[in-house]
Amino acid sequence: MPPSSVPDLSSVARLVQAYSAYSLNGFVPEVILVGGFLIAILLDVFTRRAKSKSISIYFAIVVLAMAGIASAFQWQPFVAGQPWKPGHLIFPYSQTLFIPMVHESVLERGYAMAVVDNFSVFFKLLISVAGIFMLLMSLASQELRERSRRLGEYSSLIIGMCVGLYLMPASLDLTMMYISLELVSIAGYILAGFSRDTEHGAEAALKYIMFGALSSGLMIYGFSLFYGLTGTTNIIAIREVLALNPATHTGANFYILWIATILALVGMGYKISAVPFHFWTPDVYEGAPTPVTAFLSVASKAAGFGLLIRFLIFVFPEGTKTAAPVLDWQTALAIGSIVTMTFGNLAALLQTNVRRILAYSSIAHAGYMMAALVVGKADGTVAIMIYLATYLFMQIGVFYAVMLIANKIGSEEIDDYRGLMTRTPLVSSAMVIFLLSLTGIPLTAGFIGKFYLLAAVLTPDAATHSLPWLWLAVGVIVNSVISLYYYLRVAAAMFLKRPLRDMALERAGQTAPPLPAIQFGVPVSALLLALIVPILVLGVYFQPLVDFASGVVRFFNFDNIRY
Amino acid sequence: MAPLSHYLAVSAILFVIGTAGVLFRRNAIIVFMCVELMLNAVNLTLIAFSQFLGDQTGQILVFFVMTVAAAEAAVGLAIVIALFRNRQTVDIAKVNILKW
Amino acid sequence: MSIFDILFYLFAAAIVLSAAFVSLSRNIVHAAFSLLFTFLGIAGVYVLLSADFIAVSQILIYVGGILVLIVFGVMLTNRVTNIDIRAAIRSRIPAFIICAGLLALLIAFITQAHWIRYDEEPWKKTPWGKNAVEQVTKPLQGSVREVIDQQGSQGTAAEIGKLLMSDYMLPFELLSIVLLVALIGAAMIARQEAVQKKRPLSPSLPTEVSQ
Fold first, then answer.
1. Measured between alpha carbons, how far is A92 from A17 in angstroms, rounded to an integer?
2. Neighbours of B26 (CB within 10 A)
3. Which residues of A touch C182 (CB under 8 A)?
4. 3-state secondary structure of B27
5. How does residue A357 score in pLDDT terms, banded at 50, 70 and 90?
6. Res A465: pLDDT
7. ipTM exceeding 0.90, yes/no
8. Which of A227, C115, A145, C99 minimizes the C-alpha distance to B16?
9. What is the dihedral of CA B60, B65, B70, B74, to 10 degrees?
10. How many domains does chain A have?
11. Do B66 and C57 touch (CB under 8 A)?
């Protein structure tokens, strides 16, 4: 290079870019959350009376809304014709991997801790919306009101959990994945045991933490094997070593790679409650306070899927199948998906408690989404994101309705739901809409989710023009039909069946006075409507959501993922 | 110096002992001890890799695993104590109001 | 066989035996003490692997923190004397078969596998390896022990500190949130709620403190 007096501007620019990656740019939502977390703790100290503790929930809503808005600003609009731009990397490596700080490959290839791209922004928005709904739901919860002295801790823990949830789909490094997952898990254990003075609460928390500790131990052992195979913990670097170095995936190493992948998937499968790792789900969903259950079943599952997509598609991308090891994770995942959805649906048929039915149905929904994950690529990822966005409203909605009913009648047994239609028409019809949407009936948002999911699973193979995953699609359809039975069982109890008390009285020859009507306040009903409207609107006008989700995936550049 | 595979074998044995303990013991506190065994096995694997590779990343990961283990143990034991207060037992098999 | 090797095998035997005792012991107090020897044995292996900082952390965190916490847990849940502290093993024979199979599988693959090394050719082919191996790792030629013999141990604390403050800053900061969440949560779950209803025992203590 000839010596020149003019400084090399491109290297200066690169230097600036590299240092800005260390600044808090691109890290604003998380900083808001962390600040809110600390203030919420202080707020708890200063509000002493039990009555004023609910102010911390309002504060948490504000914090989550601000973080959500801040992450919306991170969205990078896609302009046709412009070169593909990687996301904003946070904390690129300078010391490890023997790379000098401003080595160009650091910024180009994505050797960083985390990344702000549209994919992570999508999940951040999803988590914020779920969190806000969940906190609004908490305000109406009888169970939480009885323990209002601890509401300060409750809302600060939710903010803390959101930090982990935000970073899970953004992680590019096994270290980061492990710690953000553990943050979510630990906050989840505590929130599941929030009503620990009841027997169910403490027990749910114990089961949650035991399975959680086991699966995170297995996962980190898998991560350590990845480190031994490739000498790095960055998922993109892992893929490159695997692609460049055949010795890492031939012979005994092939089996080690399998073991490591399966062990890593254990920890993520636990978060999405896929079948061999689902044992905690029914107990925790039944024992935790209802808003926490709703949040765990939506936000925690969404972040788990974000992590899973990031991990599978980055370490074993479709586009580099020739160079990367041909690890047939797709078939393994397809079998897991079928088993998960079938088990979830069959077990739900046997339940009599509505919350347990919903717990098993959420296992089944994880199975459906895993089916789209099998396809990988752009279609599958878009389908999962659409599914998650629709699933958010219906799942939170159905738990909200269950909570409202339990507040008044003090039960979640299906027999106690009989005749609710005459007593509380609003909540009953809302519940039926949520259940129909969960089944995937047309004109509801659930149908759109299922439709795109099936379309992705039925994508013909480009080379052979055959349908490689036809059996998986058949499994999804058959399972949806099975699920119709138990969803409608709940709806039928509310609409068609008469209360057991009336029937008993009638048999005794007495006329039964009708059970008293159940009244709900305006804010409670307004929140219910706020959950119904998106379901009905997305059922017919879904194009914006689809555009949004495909805008996310365009940044993935599936043929050659290089950050 | 002993070869890498010996270090890995020791940690694999430790890991399987820990996993077996978590899966088959009934006392909640013993289960938490066995989780610590599993995490120690992971740490041993990572340190062995890190030293034979001449790369410090593994040691950082060990540092993180240790801290997370401490946090998990604290929360776990708090839950055990809360449950013990309600039920007067730490036997997982007796904790069965919520069926499978 | 050098003295280091003999020490390693001694430590390894101590680790495996005491870990098996933790997992099989019927007495929870004995298990807790056996865990102490596992932790110390592992710290010894870390020293042999020249991971000095981690070895010290192992003793401080595991022995000084986690083990003490577990012993407290044992003491608090054994307060009531009529509870049998003996812990049975659920189903011995299937447990043993599953674990033996798993172990055989793991060891078979782990001992045969080819783990990546800093000086091998494919490693240099990686994007960061190309220009880096000869430049940056020149002082690191040879095995760890050889490096130490040549230049004396520098200790790993400085290197770990640098990494924690640069590349691994984000997980490091996140870890502080994890610890704060665990702290608040553990206090919330374990504290006595009954104080809320009763008057504090000592009139000088306000209610909040006596929680």
1. 11
2. 16
3. 186
4. strand
5. very high
6. 76
7. yes
8. C99
9. 140
10. 1
11. yes
